[in-house]
Amino acid sequence: MDVTLAHSNHCHVALRAGFASSGLPVFETLPARTVGPGSCELMGGPGMVEGCADGDLLKIGDDGPFQIERRGPSPGPIMVRGLRHLAVELSGCERDVLELLTG
Prior knowledge:
The structure is a single chain. The protein is mainly beta and 103 residues long. The chain has one domain. 11% of the residues lie in helices and 42% in strands. It has one helix at residues 92-102, and strands at 10-19, 25-36, 39-42, 57-60, 66-70, 77-80, 83-86. It is globular and about 40 Å long.
């Protein structure tokens, strides 16, 4: 049997979600794909971390803070100060559906 091993660039990243009442940082671990040194693409959307979404390309600091290098194609919501906002502009059809759902 011939077996070929391939290198996977999939990983998990710990993004800082905030701080506990003790002052210690709280992290959320998310699936990602390594793109370059210190850069990764999120492969799953966060539930606690504010300001990023599935598919975003991030530059991540040593202790969990991050900068968006490029927004991903995901139309999924991102959390910003507890409000849900769309990460990308909606097409006409998606806008109509959102309008029907939200009034």
